[in-house]
């Protein structure tokens, strides 16, 4: 029995989408506008019911044939492999994991791209997620960005598309990927382009903050894969630039993040417009109650695969340092820290607010630091430019709000600095997870104030789990002792990586 059972419940209890509560067509009936209103989320008008039932044709979704070498794996071998790669599974008839690329049976045109990318073996989420996805069943994947999860759903999506009738004029996409941010959507599309081009699969990215014209043109030309943020997609659907009648493979990427961002009404509205017998792949880095509740509404008899522990856990390749500071010490501490660590490597600095982000960035630039900032109020063109400058190393310091915390796959971020502590431990883990990627080591520095005391206990659990020393002042805060008025126990005292020089106290 899986150790996550008590957390997630029995996946077989997930409600079939043809449940009577969904009405005769299997679609959720239109709801009152009030139900879609939420103080934190933009107002969304109720979905217009689309009656697809008459036009529903059968479609193929099971493409999996177990290879002889996978079939011959014994239960002990399967268990040992899952244990070694920290894979936990739930669900009925879970397929065996696939240890090598050649055993998954992807078509030659997909394998060529995988080989070209130089990958040696499937990542854990791919080893277990590919056979699950290829079997055509719904899937809950609990895995971080950086785990190879994009290809875990994209390569089966490519196989799926190639088995469907070609698009007719006016058809919408066959695969829809919903993502929380423009940055993640763009990144997913880059992978879709790279791995889909050999079979001439077209994809486009639909996100807000940029002119609609080029996106409308892509949609009108016909694209098999659409990667979209929820708001702009609804806009495109309502203005009849696309429709979801052909969608048979739906991916919700970073569902937890989409919920955090208040997209639940939009997600429900979009999903209600897709045929109920679609295949749905639901991805999340975390598994809080709200994420599970939404999964129950969208999925039918899913597999669940968890990579690593479903407890919140930081990447062990990251050195984590926490310094207790007061609010007004932060800027000086930041500059001192950067003087110590700055060697041209990429440094990502997180702030709470867009205003704070702008202010600190301006100050840093006035003080001669090569910093640029990225947050939700910047135009898309500016965000793209800042990101490319950062990626290219031309501007090695990037300040950001949480918009950049998840999903970004920037190679070689050496340091993450939490100038402001985030609003949740999940965000903490995701922010620092921007470093220490793809086997590299990384370092995270976090300024922690008395106002953050409520997070002390959980932060200590994360630090201890990752084998990090806990700053004694933080330990005291975890026991409910308030910090001294000026911060003690600075990074220097941790004796890691900062060399001699200025004192931190
Ligand atoms: P993701 O979790 O999708 O953001 O993936 C993180 C990075 O891992 C991306 O740059 C992928 O191209 C890369 N990646 C995906 N699959 C593999 C694999 N099997 N081996 C090595 N790298 C991979």
UniProtKB/TrEMBL annotation:
Pfam families xrefs: DEAD, Helicase_C
Report the SUPFAM superfamilies cross-referenced here: P-loop containing nucleoside triphosphate hydrolases
List the PANTHER family: ATP-DEPENDENT RNA HELICASE DBP3
Where is each Helicase C-terminal domain found? Answer: 333-478
| Top class in the EC scheme | hydrolase
Where would I look for the motif Q motif in this sequence? 99-127
Cite the InterPro entries for this sequence. DEAD/DEAH_box_helicase_dom, Helicase_ATP-bd, Helicase_C-like, P-loop_NTPase, RNA-helicase_DEAD-box_CS, RNA_helicase_DEAD_Q_motif
The Helicase ATP-binding domain, residue ranges: 130-305
- CDD domains listed in its UniProt record: DEADc_DDX5_DDX17, SF2_C_DEAD
Query: Per the UniProt record, which EC number(s) apply here?
Result: 3.6.4.13
Its organism's taxonomic lineage begins at: Eukaryota, Viridiplantae, Streptophyta, Embryophyta, Tracheophyta
Q: Which residue ranges does the record annotate as region Disordered?
A: 1-44, 474-505
Q: What residue stretches are annotated with the DEAD-box RNA helicase Q domain? A: 99-127
Instruction: Specify residue ranges for compositional bias: Gly residues.
Output: 487-505
Q: Does the keyword RNA-binding apply?
A: yes
For this protein, what is any one GO molecular function term? Answer: RNA binding
Q: What species is given as this protein's source?
A: Coptis chinensis
User: Belongs to which family?
Assistant: Belongs to the DEAD box helicase family.
* Protein name, as recorded: RNA helicase
- Keywords linked to the UniProt accession: ATP-binding, Helicase, Hydrolase, Nucleotide-binding, RNA-binding
Record has RNA-binding as a keyword:
yes
